[in-house]
Amino acid sequence: MAPPRILVVGAGFAGVECVQRLERRLAPGEAEIALVTPFSYQLYLPLLPQVASGVLTPQSVAVSLRRSRRHRTRIIPGGAIGVDTEAKVCVIRKITDEVVNEPYDYIVLAAGSVTRTFDIPGLLDHARGMKTLAEAAYVRDHVIAQLDLADASQDEAERASRLQFVVVGGGYAGTETAACLQRLTTNAVRHYPRLDPKLIKWHLIDIAPKLMPELGDKLGRAALEILRKRNIEVSLGVSVAKAAAEEVTFTDGRVLPCRTLIWTAGVAASPLIATLGAETVRGRLAVTPQMRLPGADGVFALGDAAAVPDLAKGDGAVCPPTAQHAMRQGKVLADNLIASLRRQPLRDYVHKDLGLVVDLGGKDAVSKPLGVELHGLPAQAVARGYHWSALRTNVAKTRVMTNWLLNAVAGDDFVRTGFQSRKPATLRDFEYTDAYLTPEQIKEHTQSSVIKH
After folding, report:
1. What is the CA radius of gyration of the chain?
2. Which residues of 416-442 are buried (b: 16+ CB within 10 A; e: fewer)?
3. What would the pLDDT profile of 371-386 be if each residue is shown by its tens digit?
4. Could you tell me whether strands 284-286 and 280-281 are parallel, antiparallel, or unpaired per DSSP bridges?
5. Signal peptide: which range, if any (predicted)?
6. How far is Cα of residue 36 from the mean position of the Cα atoms in its chain?
7. 366-371 CB contacts, 8 Å cutoff, 24+ apart
8. Which terminus of the chain has fewer CB atoms gathered within 10 Å of its CB, N or C?
């Protein structure tokens, strides 16, 4: 009798933690494990702003999935574009664009999230995101290119528009992105004697009334003061009304000459979730505390893709889409999957939030570990210590620490690496959100496959 087939979709924090625990705790031959991911690495997302600013190299935050000594998982290079829970088949588009069916006995949906967008004229055509490694590398090239082009231009209007930068989203990703990239341009402008540093202006805008409200009023104000001391203009209660190639219009009526719009205004569950036709909570799969999908045999979901009940908070709360929860959910889900295989009882996911860290670059940071509010160097030590310890391999830890030390001693580099193409890249170009099938297309695809066989 063939061993049960376990299919894990997604190699983010949740998916990788789940696979690693399965590899450690399942006996050889007890089950076959396969992982669907376009890339054979786990991306450490919280450090992407430091990749965009050049403090870290892209390779240092891309942790190889094949370095584990227990590695025996079959990695399928591609993305899941639909799931037929009745036929127990996952439809996968490989990186070659070949579409294949992958049967399973148990499926773990850890497909993560994509950048959340709104119906704003010009947004999809002119904004860049900060959700993938390619986007971070592209944004760095783009920002440095604006300095190069402004320095070479004889047109004052063009120069002014190239030196205005807008980041939308006052959460952790947006705040860290604005802070780290502002630090990059401030240090870089010393090497552009024809540019007036006063012309370089960073704008951080958010429709919310407070910056990073999860940190609390005191630390939120501290972060706001740090940004404003660096001459980052923070506008709250404001969003983008319209985006164009050379200007951005805000909802308060301002029109800003600008060629750089970075969009980090939240995330939404992967479009894969909609292909299941199951109940959702704000777009995330509604699952039990054991992370099972009700009414679907052998289907589990976690991380950003699932609304996992937050039993530590109660009152119907669901766990926020953070790496901290995703990693711990991955371990509990793996244990529950093994328990299912062995006909043992499953356990609920319960975890109390350990706090938050925000690295603003240099010596600036705000952190709230275990409810203790910190800012400045102590907060920076906690933030970097947390990120460093969360990296999965010693190789990744060594690379990141070496990059930090080198940057502290030698300063920033201002070299474009070639990601900047002649055709501007947009939000669509990196996340492939139009690649998913409808429930009807999935049924048609899986049924035709069954007929052929």
Report:
1. 23
2. eeebbeeeebbbebbbeeeebbeeeeb
3. 888 988 999 999 999 9
4. antiparallel
5. none
6. 17
7. 366/215, 366/219, 366/222, 366/223, 366/226, 367/219, 368/215, 368/216, 368/219
8. N
